[in-house]
Design goal:
Layout (H helix, E strand, L loop, with lengths): L1 E6 L3 E7 L6 E8 L3 E2 L5 E3 L1 H19 L8 E6 L5 E3 L10 E2 L7 H10 L2 H8 L6 H12 L9 E3 L1 H10 L6 H7 L2 E2 L4 E2 L2 H6 L15 E3 L2 H7 L6 E7 H8 L7 E6 L3 E7 L3 E4 L4 E4 L6 E6 L4 H12 L3 H14 L8 E9 L7 E7 L7 H26 L4 E5 L6 H11 L4 E4 L5 H5 L6 H4 L3 E3 L8 H19 L9 E4 L4
Helix pairs in contact: 2-4, 10-11, 10-12, 12-13, 12-16
Length: about 500
C-alpha cells in the first residue's frame, strides 16, 4: 500500500491506495481553520496543521486496521506560495502560516516590482515580476525584525510538513518560484534576488531534485504510527501532483484546475516556446519540456462571493439554488457582462484592491442574472488566457478538476466553448494530489480516473459567441492595459 498526503488551502486530504492496481482503500479529509479579517489576513496555525495531519492519518489507520504497517511509501503534495518563518535546525515555527492569498504584503510586492524591470526577472524566472515570498519576507522583517536575528529559514506548508516527516528541508520548484528564488532557466535556486534586496542568501530551502525521496524519521514515524525508514517523496506542488495524475487522459492534456484559484496546467513540448507575464514555469516532472502552471486572476474566491452575494448566505443553500438558476438558464441576459478579477489591484486605481465589476445592468436585472454573469465571465476568462495554447496544437484535450468541476452546468459551458476539443472530468478530483504525489513509486497508482463530457444542446451557439465577444471587448477596454492579464502566447519553434 501507498499513502498520499495533500495539504490544500482549506483542507488536508489523505488516502491509501493498493500497490498493485492503485485501487482506493481508504480516504480522509480534515478541514483547516483559516484566520481572516478585512486587512487581507489569511493565516493558519502551523501546529494545528501537523495535528490535522495526524488526525487524518489516524482515520486512515482505523479504516485499514491491521494492514497499516503494509505501507511501503509516502507521497506529499501541498499548495504553494505560503510563508512560515522557522528555526532551520528544529523546524519550530516563529510565525503563523501566511497563505498564498494573504494580501498584506502587496505594498512591498509593488515596491520590489518597481525596483527592477520586468526583463530582469524574466531573464531567470521566465515571468515578469518577483515572487510574493520576497515581499512577504520583507514585510515580516518590517513587522517583527527580531525574528531575523536568529538565522531563520523561510518555508512553505509543503516544506514544513516534509521536515516533520523526514528531518530534511526541500521545496518544490513551483513554490520556489512563488517564493522568488527559482532560476527556471537552469532549474535551480538562485540567490540573486535576495542579494539585491538585502535578504539573507540562505533564506530559502534547497530545491527538490527530480523525484528524490528521504526516509521517515523516528519523529515522523511517531506522527504517522508507521515504521522508521519508509521512503517519503516530495514535497510536490499541488498543481505539479495534479498534472501527474492526469497524464493518462491524453497525450498532451491541459489540466483545468477549478479550485481556490483557477489554473491552466500543461507541459510545453520542446517544439514550442511561449510565455506569459504571470506564468509559473518549472522543469517538467515527466522529464520532457517545461511544465507551465498558468494561474488566472480569478477562481473560487470569486465564485464563493457571487454565491453568498447573489444566491444565499448559507453556502449549501446557495449551492442548491445555484444549480436551479443555471439549469433554468446558463448565460446572462444579452448585454450583461461581469469582470471576475475580485482579488486583484483595481485596474483604474492600482493602490486599491478589487478589480471586479458589471456592465449592462438595467431595471430588470435580477440577482440570478448577476450570478450567471459571474459564472460565464470566469469561463470566458479561462478561454481568453489559454485559447492560444489550445489553437496552437500544444495540447490535445481539456481535463476539468477542482471543486467547481463537480457542477455539471459549468462543465457544459466549458464543453460548448471549447468544442470540438475533447473534454474530460476527473472522477475523484479530491484525490488528485494524493495520487499524483505517488508517481515516483508507481505511475499506475498516480493516474486519476476521468470521464468524457459533452456540451449541453440547449446552449445557443450564437448567444454564446455574442456573450463571449462582449466579455472580450469589455475586458479589453477596462483591463487590457494591465500587463499581468495578458493571455498566454506561444509559437512553434523553427527547425534548425
Amino acid at each position: 500500500m501507498y499513502l498520499g498526503l495533500d495539504i490544500g488551502s482549506t483542507s488536508l486530504k489523505a488516502a491509501v491506495f493498493d500497490a498493485r492496481r492503485g485501487r482506493l482503500l481508504a480516504q480522509a479529509e480534515h478541514r483547516l481553520v483559516l484566520d481572516v479579517d478585512e486587512t487581507g489576513k489569511r493565516e493558519q496555525d502551523p501546529a494545528a496543521l501537523l495535528r490535522a495531519l495526524g488526525a487524518a492519518v489516524a482515520s486512515l489507520r482505523e479504516q485499514v486496521a491491521d494492514r497499516w504497517n503494509d505501507i511501503r511509501g509516502i507521497g506529499l503534495a501541498a499548495q504553494g506560495g505560503s510563508t512560515i518563518l522557522v528555526d532551520r535546525r528544529t523546524g519550530a515555527a516563529a510565525t503563523p502560516i501566511f497563505l498564498w492569498n494573504d494580501t498584506r504584503a502587496f505594498g512591498h510586492f509593488h515596491k520590489i516590482a518597481a525596483q527592477f524591470p520586468a526583463r530582469w526577472w524574466r531573464a531567470f524566472a521566465l515571468s515578469d515580476g518577483p515572487g510574493m515570498g520576497l515581499a512577504r519576507a520583507r514585510w515580516i522583517r518590517e513587522q517583527w525584525p527580531h525574528l531575523f536575528k536568529t538565522d531563520p529559514l523561510c518555508v512553505g506548508v509543503g516544506e514544513h510538513a516534509y521536515f516533520a516527516l523526514t528531518g530534511e528541508w526541500r521545496q518544490d520548484a513551483c513554490h520556489a518560484r512563488q517564493s522568488g528564488c527559482y532560476d527556471a532557466v537552469n532549474n535551480r535556486i538562485t540567490t540573486l534576488p535576495m542579494t539585491k534586496l538585502g535578504l539573507p542568501e540562505n533564506l530559502f530551502a534547497p530545491l527538490r531534485q527530480s523525484h528524490e525521496m528521504h526516509a521517515l524519521t523516528p519523529e515522523g514515524a511517531a506522527l504517522l504510527r508507521l515504521p522508521v525508514g519508509i521512503p517519503v517523496a516530495g514535497p510536490y506542488n499541488d498543481h505539479e501532483a495534479g498534472y501527474l495524475s492526469v497524464l493518462r487522459a491524453s497525450r498532451r492534456p491541459l489540466e483545468c484546475s477549478l479550485g481556490t484559484a483557477w489554473v491552466g496546467n500543461f507541459v510545453l513540448p520542446p517544439a514550442f516556446s511561449g510565455r506569459a507575464p504571470f506564468q509559473i514555469c518549472i522543469h517538467s516532472p515527466t522529464g520532457n519540456g517545461r511544465q507551465i502552471i498558468m494561474p488566472l486572476m480569478t477562481g473560487n474566491v470569486t465564485l464563493e462571493w457571487a454565491l453568498a452575494t447573489f444566491v444565499h448566505s448559507d453556502r449549501q443553500t446557495a449551492l442548491d439554488r445555484a444549480d436551479g438558476i443555471l439549469a433554468e438558464r446558463l448565460l446572462p441576459p444579452p448585454g450583461l457582462v461581469a469582470l471576475p478579477w475580485l482579488n486583484r489591484p483595481n485596474a483604474l486605481r492600482p493602490t486599491q484592491t478589487g478589480c471586479g465589476g458589471f456592465f449592462g445592468i438595467g431595471p430588470a436585472t435580477t440577482p440570478a442574472d448577476l450570478f450567471r454573469a459571474v459564472v460565464a465571465a470566469m469561463v470566458f476568462e479561462f478561454a481568453r488566457v489559454l485559447d492560444p495554447v489550445i489553437k496552437s496544437g500544444a495540447v490535445d484535450s481539456l481535463v476539468l478538476c477542482g471543486g467547481t468541476a463537480r457542477n455539471a452546468h459549468i462543465c457544459s459551458l466549458f464543453a460548448a466553448l471549447f468544442a470540438p476539443l475533447p473534454l474530460r472530468r476527473v472522477v475523484e478530483a479530491e484525490l488528485m494530489g494524493t495520487r499524483g504525489c505517488l508517481h515516483a513509486f508507481a505511475p499506475k497508482i498516480s493516474h486519476a480516473p476521468t470521464t468524457p463530457l459533452r456540451s449541453d444542446h440547449r446552449i445557443d451557439r450564437k448567444e454564446l459567441a455574442a456573450a463571449r465577444a462582449l466579455y472580450l471587448e469589455t475586458f479589453d477596454r477596462l483591463c487590457g492595459h494591465v500587463p499581468e492579464g495578458k493571455p498566454y502566447s506561444l509559437k512553434k519553434n523553427r527547425r534548425k
